[in-house]
Automatic annotation (TrEMBL):
InterPro entries: ADH-like_C, ADH-like_N, ER, GroES-like_sf, NAD(P)-bd_dom_sf, Quinone_OxRdtase_PIG3. The keyword NADP applies. Keywords: NADP, Oxidoreductase. Residues 3-312 form the Enoyl reductase (ER) domain. This is Quinone oxidoreductase. GO terms for molecular function: NADPH binding; oxidoreductase activity, acting on NAD(P)H. It comes from Hondaea fermentalgiana.
């Protein structure tokens, strides 16, 4: 008779289902905590389609104990983390870099943001940002806090960001480590800053503003559209005259081989700095208890009550 577990399926909520069986190259992990991310909320509401071959169990990241080896691990997954057991690709599984009773909670908040930031800000390896000015939109978000901390740790000369109110701006500078944070509701950041690299999750009307502040040879990386994927008529002359690069990516749809490369680079360059405390991540504002609390987490995320990451502990 199959072992059973509780899991959260997109659009259905908490259900009982069979514990999955790992195939060669996979690891069955008993979940101790998982990160809560906006794509999961959107998927649950029907607004984030996934590949037909992926599970409809929610969740992109988790921490727990590998069933066969007993190792404590965290992992990036294409789905399935909102469950008492989860299958992970052994190439995308990392050791937990922390000690202490909260190590599973902290580790569960790492994979999705660290993989995303490394993929998009460190395209030429750990020295990519050395001496560069980096501008990060939405600095109080999970991606934002990770991007700020990692850019500072790997030699960016200046890291600036935005947030929606003065409280979050203070959090970005005093806690996360940004050099300056602009309140995007009251300040015209594009008139104050010049940037070599911009990380954007907003889109829409921000594109022409970004083009104005980009230095010669700068790069704009678009990760999402919290605002809109559409902008008004735009004069692209600056892109030519300033030799600009505009690019975008979605981590979830990237080939597993690319994710495996990123995982190895994180293990080599980032995980030791997390273990030593040189990179002070993650920043977790909300921790929820028990799998049924996913609905409370989604409500808080919908209302943008969090700063940094949210985690659910099993």
């Amino acid at each position: 008779m199959s072992r059973m577990m509780r899991a959260v399926r997109a659009g259905k909520g908490v259900v009982e289902m069979a514990v999955p069986s790992p195939e060669p190259g996979q690891v069955l992990v008993r979940t101790r905590a998982f990160g809560v991310n906006r794509p999961e909320l959107l998927q649950h509401e029907g607004g984030y389609p996934v590949r037909p071959d992926q599970t409809d169990v929610l969740g992109l990241e988790l921490a727990g104990v590998a069933e066969q080896s007993g190792e404590e691990v965290c992992a990036l997954v294409g789905g399935g983390a909102y469950a008492e057991y989860c299958i992970t690709d052994e190439r995308l599984t990392l050791p937990i870099p922390f000690q202490g009773d909260d190590r599973f909670v902290r580790a569960a908040a790492l994979p999705e943001t660290t993989f995303t930031v490394w993929k998009n800000l460190f395209w030429d390896g750990p020295d990519t940002l050395k001496g560069k000015s980096v501008f990060v939109q939405a600095g109080a978000s999970g991606i934002g806090t990770t991007a700020i901390a990692m850019a500072k740790a790997f030699g960016a000369s200046r890291v600036t960001t935005t947030a929606r109110d003065d409280e979050r701006c203070k959090f970005c500078t005093d806690v996360v480590g940004a050099d300056v944070c602009y309140n995007y509701n009251t300040e015209e950041w594009e008139k104050e800053e010049k940037a070599d690299v911009i990380l954007d999750m907003v889109g829409g009307s921000y594109l022409p503003r970004h083009l104005k502040m980009m230095q010669q040879g700068a790069r704009l990386v678009i990760l999402g559209f919290l605002g809109s994927p559409v902008t008004e008529k735009l004069n692209m002359t600056r892109v030519l005259l300033k030799n600009l690069t505009i690019t975008g990516s979605v981590l979830r749809s990237a080939p597993d081989s690319e994710k495996a490369r990123i995982c190895e680079e994180l293990k080599r360059h980032v995980w030791p700095r997390l273990a030593s405390g040189e990179i002070a991540l993650p920043h977790i504002s909300h921790t929820f208890e028990g799998i049924d609390a996913y609905a409370d987490a989604f409500e808080d995320m919908n209302n943008s009550k969090h700063k940094g990451k949210m985690v659910l502990r099993l």
